[in-house]
Specification:
There is one protein chain. It is globular and about 55 Å long. The chain is α+β, with helices and mostly antiparallel strands. The N and C termini lie far apart (44 Å). A hairpin with a 5-residue loop joins strand 18 and strand 19. The strands form four sheets. Strands 1, 2, 3, 4, 5, 6, 20, 21, 22, 23, 24, 25, 26 and 27 form a 14-stranded mixed β-sheet that branches. An eight-stranded antiparallel β-sheet has the order 7-10-9-15-16-17-12-11. The protein has a three-stranded mixed β-sheet with strand order 8-18-19, with no helix packed on it. The protein contains nine helices and 27 strands.
Length: 423
């Protein structure tokens, strides 16, 4: 019979036994890595009933980071009930099983966890149609996909718990007219009057209108996301497709971009650095790129406003665990979701509709996110007693929205791992 761990017993263990005990309780590797016995004792009353989760990763000396230092970060924690943990983690285990079953068999599909109208977890297999998909193609996916599946939370641990009959649905998604590329604009044109966050900034902020151009001044408008640190070098993050050459049906719709500035009469502010984006897969949701700051202007850990000023306080990254939990149960009373884009401005209070390992879909209406918003930040503002002032955690980077009303972002924690950077 497995040994039952109490908080008191955990507090008396050596570090190795403590780590193994937490793993046996189903605590994620991310949560274990920074969780001490003292913190566990303060956080959890009964480890049989509660599971620690990582809220996000925040600067230990935020003022130093704002002044140019590289971030030293620590995790913030919260707990969910054991029942909710089983519900969420069993669904994501089921999603991974479906992904493995379909891997390599079909092009242009993604698998997601969502919650249906009956408040039940469901696995959605999305088949992406650029206008050439036949009914037979969809039927082939349906014939390979199980109608339901058993998911296991804490697979291989003492806390392992199976949930049978998680439904799996196949959905055809129209991506024919999704607004992927930045809005076209030439370097001798001014930003249109109906654009947001266009200013000649002294310090370049998150969520600002940004002109992405090639050496001939041809390009388009997108949005900056957030400053990131790459081995003591400050860079600006945006969507990868803002920086990548991209063609559709043989027609070039995005030039190879490299020179970036914020206003027509400003000096060049950035040079393209590193991009993760595959233009052969229009469904791609690993979509991010960094830019070297060549202007000498500092990068601001705040968000652009329409008055040439900034607001907010970006102190770190929201965890993938928290995004999964928001999809399941929504935000807390002291949390608010935000999105900012140069074309449509600010959206707040949206929900997370679907999530997988790399990305999330929101319930922001398709018309509320347009060309020019690409690269903008998704974030959560927290007003809890954790901090004396509100703080912002970056959730992800806006990638695109498709013709079937789905609005997509790449998870920030994933981008940090892929590009080796930190907010």
């Amino acid at each position: 019979m497995p040994r039952r761990h109490t908080t008191q017993r955990l507090s008396k263990m050596g570090r190795r036994r403590f780590v193994n005990a937490l793993a046996g309780l189903g605590v994620s590797t991310a949560a274990i890595s920074g969780l001490s016995q003292e913190a566990m004792a303060d956080l959890v009353d009964d480890p049989k009933k509660e599971v620690p989760r990582v809220l996000g990763y925040v600067h230990t000396d935020h003022e130093a980071v704002k002044n140019g230092a590289s971030p030293d970060r620590e995790a913030l924690y919260y707990t969910i009930s054991r029942e909710q943990w089983v519900r969420i983690e069993s669904a994501h285990d089921a999603r991974q099983q479906v992904e493995q079953q379909l891997d390599g068999r079909f092009d242009d599909i993604k698998v997601w966890v969502t919650t249906n109208s009956n408040d039940e977890k469901r696995i959605d297999v999305e088949v992406y149609d650029d206008g050439s998909l036949s009914r037979k193609d969809v039927e082939a996916v349906e014939g390979t996909t199980p109608g339901s599946i058993t998911g296991v939370a804490g697979r291989g641990t003492e806390a392992e718990s199976a949930v049978e009959g998680i439904p799996v649905a196949v959905e055809r998604i129209n991506i024919k007219s999704e607004p992927q590329n930045p809005v076209s604009l030439e370097s001798d044109q001014e930003f249109p009057d109906d654009y947001y966050y266009a200013s000649d900034w002294d310090n370049i902020p998150a969520g600002a209108a940004c002109f992405f151009a090639d050496a001939d001044g041809q390009g388009g408008v997108g949005t900056t996301c957030v400053p990131v640190d790459d081995g003591d070098v400050k860079k600006m993050l945006t969507a990868g497709h803002n920086l990548s050459e991209m063609s559709v049906d043989g027609e070039l719709i995005n030039p190879s971009l490299g020179l970036v500035w914020l206003e027509d009469d400003s000096p060049y502010h950035f040079l393209e650095d590193e991009v993760v984006f595959d233009d052969d897969e229009r469904k791609n949701v690993l979509d991010a790129g960094t830019m070297h700051n060549t202007s000498g202007n500092a990068l601001e850990y705040e968000f652009a406003t329409n008055h040439g000023t900034t607001s907010g306080d970006i102190i770190g990254t929201l965890s993938r665990e928290r995004i999964k939990d928001i999809e399941d149960d929504g935000t807390w009373d002291d949390e608010m979701t935000y999105h900012q884009g140069a074309r449509t401005g600010e959206e707040r209070g949206y929900g997370i509709e679907k999530v997988n390992d790399n990305a999330f879909q929101t319930d922001i209406p398709h018309d509320s996110v347009q060309q020019g918003d690409s690269g903008g930040p998704y974030y959560v503002r927290n007003t809890s007693s954790v901090s004396p002032t509100p703080f912002d955690l970056i959730m992800g980077v806006h990638s695109w929205s498709d013709a079937d009303e789905n609005t997509w972002g790449t998870i920030m924690e994933v981008i940090e791992d892929e590009l080796g950077v930190e907010v």
